[in-house]
Amino acid sequence: MKITRLENCEKTPVTADGALKAFRQVPIGKADGAPNFSMRVFTVEPGGHTPHHSHDSEHLNYIISGSGEVMEGDTPRKIRQGDFIFVPPSARHQYRNTGEETLVLICAVPSKYE
Amino acid sequence: MKITRLENCEKTPVTADGALKAFRQVPIGKADGAPNFSMRVFTVEPGGHTPHHSHDSEHLNYIISGSGEVMEGDTPRKIRQGDFIFVPPSARHQYRNTGEETLVLICAVPSKYE
After folding, report:
1. Chain A residues contacting B, CB < 8 Å?
2. Tens of pLDDT along A31-63?
3. What are phi and psi of B111, to 5 degrees?
4. B12, B45, B60, B105: which could join B21 in a potential S-S bond, CB 3.0 to 4.6 Å?
């Protein structure tokens, strides 16, 4: 059993095209022996965003803190602390921090997309 | 894309043997078309607990609020808001609310264990 907290997890900038002021951590993943899926965490500073893209792996998201928008294709939808979001496989999406606080979200994905 | 919050999700008592004052919700799961894994949420009232059991599906957990213990076999380990916990396949475990606040945790599992 592993118990950890974000402050103990390595934090690296998201370098994918279209990302801005976004950082990635993996509190539970393949390195821990998780056999099917992983919990990543993204931290997005005000004005920042994740890439606007699609892929065949789904996202199961939970907003730990902050607020902003998730793009559903080209349509922005409001998100805030406490929201759960399901991004289906192949759906184009992007998380944007349009608030003044840091946006922190869990992004669980199949292991192959970790 | 689905966006939801706990207050919009049906909440049912956990009826498994050994559960006490524990409730289950499924903000993202098979009913939403999630193809590989699901996010369930357990709410455990003070003095309550989930079953002390093991199974071949892993848990990827995040503590949304509250505090308590997770049993690693027969060993209690402290948990609190903000902790991430990986319960490997076949590891015997139980969540116990030993605090005074309600304990709320995400419990992500493979679809077959939803």
Report:
1. 1-6, 27-28, 32-39, 58, 60, 62, 70, 72, 77, 79, 82-89, 91, 93, 106, 108, 110
2. 999 999 999 999 999 999 999 999 999 999 999
3. -50, -40
4. B45
CA angle B89, B95, B99 (to 5 degrees): 160
Task: Give pTM, 2 decimals.
Answer: 0.98
Residue B34, min C-alpha distance to chain A (Å): 7
pLDDT in tens, B11-56: 999 999 999 999 999 999 999 999 999 999 999 999 999 999 999 9
Greatest Cα-to-Cα distance within chain B, rounded to the nearest angstrom: 41
Q: Which two tokens stand for residue B58?
A: 């892993």
Please give the domain boundaries of chain A with CATH numbers for all domains. Answer: 6-113 (2.60.120.10)
Backbone angles phi, psi at A13, to 5 degrees: -65, 145
